[in-house]
Known about the structure:
By secondary structure, this protein is of the alpha/beta class.
Amino acid sequence: MDICSGTDAVVLAFWGGVIRDELLNAPKFGFINLHTSYLPYGKGKHPHYWSIVDEKPYGVTIMKIDSGLDTGQIIFQKEIEVSWPDTGKTLYFKAMQAMSELLTEKRDEILNLHFDLVGQTESGTFHYEKELEQNSRIVLDQEYTARNLLNIIRARTFRPFPAAYFTDSGKKYEVTVQIKEVTEDFSNADSDYDSIMCDYRNLSKNEKI
């Protein structure tokens, strides 16, 4: 506590615990935390995973820490667009980049403690550490919508870390996915195929593979 006493503020990067009240109140302003979620969504653990599964907004937040878990007032935020090709891994690294940009943009305001505090007006979402593994298990005989199943798989696609999985006949199998937006025009694909096959049939025997 003596270390923080007399300081204006303490900045923490991605702090995941609870700070005791006597320490919390030691700096004049308090503690500032860099959090990789778009509060009030994504409180707790693994927000990059849950933003996909819960289909909630994602981003990064600079916040003032209070006695709760990610319940403090918001200082600055930056939202990150989430699209189908995104995975838990891509969102994690997008968040690192977005936080770097936000800190650069708001550097002077943070250093001078010149900003407005905005309370979290909605309950948002919250998840514990243990929920990640529970939700990553795919039950083969359970019904899922295609959307929900793809979200679970891509949210846990984050190599080299474990992926979503299922078990069958005593064996465990991991599942990852890569989703790519199709931008090419395949409307003439059938005619193109017929043209290629026609050219191939017209080749001499020695020219054919």
